[in-house]
């Protein structure tokens, strides 16, 4: 029972799959064609059979018609003869039998008879018998033979029955006993008394030879019967049959003997065969001509034709079947190949695939689906209902919802394309897509997208979060800011804090990247601690961070926050065992006060941050409109600076460097001056950073170097010249070449040139900078470390490169003479320099006290307004000349 249900289900599935397929039409067409051939053949054969039977009947009918006409005429002659004899007797006035005998028994009558029957081919010609049956005259012989027919049935019937006028009977002949057909007519007297008979005898073969002329062919017969059933003649001739009565009494046969014209089918009383029978009653005699032909013989030709037809039809059908079979085999072969390919494709798919028909029954299911949910193939197989599949999943634990609710939901929208991601009990994410099929039903794919979605999440995270600190990056912050900006219309303000870790580069370069990374992580954690849930902390890159503070536009509140951040950051960080002090510069922009679009706000926070930096770092600034103006000015400055060199707006001034012990000028520092056509004198402190940022410092620095060397070459004695070299110039590997060229051009002894560099040179790229410094040293040029004490860890640089001189920054000098001054630091630097055979120059000496203290501290040189500010070349020359003269 179960098997048959399964089988019928499978058949239904197969049929449904094949429905509408060309193959189905082909097979159906083939069957129709075969049926049409069979029916056509059967109809044709039947038609031909009818035709054969009809034509058999036609030929039988025409045969009997022909024979009947012939015999009617033949026998009419005899009747005429008899009648004429009788008429003659009557004309002789014969009144008695005796008179008849004597009148008839004459030669004259014999002559007359012979003349009348001259054309007859009868056995016995015309004979006349008297009332006693004795032959009294004959057309054949005279005198007549002694013959009596008194014993013959026909004679006695004619004699005894005055109504009987004629008798036809087959009798055994007197000679040789051969049967003869006797036609006898009664001769009656005027009062009806019996005088005798006139007869004629015909041998059956005489009729039969005539029958034969019709040529009816095989298994046919032609016979002449008396209406009473007696057979008179027949072909094929059988002696025994002649004279026998074949009347059976059946109504069909009675019709044959009695009706004028009959065509019928009968079982022959002679041989029992089924025969077509045509019979015709002679017009003048009670005789019937019957022609028959067996159905077998009639249908002989038809049978041959039928054989031919059936053979042809059979061959056609066979050919058709063969063709169909070949096509079917070819197609099924191709289908099975395609199925194999499809199966391979389906089973190597990474997705689970199911196809349901319009009755929600499974058509196709691949291996992956079964494996994906660890299902049983005994349940999940073609023909199973969708609901049963889900029930099975429910039973095996891969589906947890309510089966009916789920199925009803899916089925109600099975005609639509659907897609959903569901989570399985074991935490996998499966993307299910349902696609409606063209002929109803739907295709479902199940894709395990767990890895993909996790990878997408990871990628999305990487795209939006900083790998080092796991803080949101610039991209995410911009998205966040856009949302905040959209909320401005709802009256929700916010602020952006740009935080730049001060001196981070130094930590990274001097203590290594690992320490640097750890510092950034700690900074990130501390910043996180400073904000609440709605606020965003982001790392913008390098040592730059940002905080988006939601819900405030109050500068006081933001000031508290900035200070809190600075305080938090200032607590030294323990990085891999190193205590690192950190600090930051913070710029703050407030929305909507400082802008209501992203770029403006970011730019203004940045400007505020640069303001904090340029105003000494370690502090914060809230944006003010003048920062914009400054930025604009800086842009203008930049524009003008690009043309200044070509326009000859630069001039080099020289500030004397005075030997503290001897109180004489031993060198000068070249300091660049810019005569701006509108703004007047612009401080190098203002434009040098711009020149550095734009890269113009390369050309400008080279120009200063040449200028200074040329100028120094004209000075008396061995007074040396100190030229400031920007860290940016150290990025060019040709610096030493340029210095050499300036020396060669000016003819200045290399020993008289001193290059002032800041520790930033060494921070940027140690190895490269050291190589260039080494090259310069090899030229014979002296190297001084400028602005010593302002940087991050100046002392470490002293170990790395043997400078010729240290210039102690003005910030250590300016407070000398005041309580708690920096003189101990200056003292320490002077000692350390002396230990390394380095000279020391104190910068910015403005008072006598300072000079005195410095001299006592053992500082070798001083520079400052106390002696002279930087002066034009001409003025310096005068000064030097005066000194030389003194
Ligand atoms: P610096 O190399 O430390 O130069 C010394 C600065 O201190 C000069 O400022 C000088 O005028 C100033 N100064 C000297 N004595 C005193 C004093 O007694 N009191 C005060 N308050 N200041 C004094 P200046 O000329 O404005 O130069 C500023 C900075 O610009 C220089 O600092 C130097 O770093 C840079 N600079 C100047 N000329 C050039 C140049 O040709 N090339 C490069 N790369 N930088 C230059
Ligand atoms: Mg200097
Ligand atoms: Mg200096």
Automatic annotation (TrEMBL):
<protein>
    <submittedName>
        <fullName>EAL domain-containing protein</fullName>
    </submittedName>
</protein>
<dbReference type="InterPro" id="IPR001633">
    <property type="entry name" value="EAL_dom"/>
</dbReference>
<dbReference type="InterPro" id="IPR035965">
    <property type="entry name" value="PAS-like_dom_sf"/>
</dbReference>
<dbReference type="Pfam" id="PF12860">
    <property type="entry name" value="PAS_7"/>
</dbReference>
<dbReference type="InterPro" id="IPR035919">
    <property type="entry name" value="EAL_sf"/>
</dbReference>
<dbReference type="InterPro" id="IPR029787">
    <property type="entry name" value="Nucleotide_cyclase"/>
</dbReference>
<dbReference type="InterPro" id="IPR054327">
    <property type="entry name" value="His-kinase-like_sensor"/>
</dbReference>
<dbReference type="Pfam" id="PF00563">
    <property type="entry name" value="EAL"/>
</dbReference>
<dbReference type="InterPro" id="IPR043128">
    <property type="entry name" value="Rev_trsase/Diguanyl_cyclase"/>
</dbReference>
<dbReference type="Pfam" id="PF22588">
    <property type="entry name" value="dCache_1_like"/>
</dbReference>
<feature type="domain" description="EAL">
    <location>
        <begin position="634"/>
        <end position="884"/>
    </location>
</feature>
<feature type="domain" description="GGDEF">
    <location>
        <begin position="492"/>
        <end position="625"/>
    </location>
</feature>
<dbReference type="InterPro" id="IPR000160">
    <property type="entry name" value="GGDEF_dom"/>
</dbReference>
<dbReference type="InterPro" id="IPR052155">
    <property type="entry name" value="Biofilm_reg_signaling"/>
</dbReference>
<dbReference type="Pfam" id="PF00990">
    <property type="entry name" value="GGDEF"/>
</dbReference>
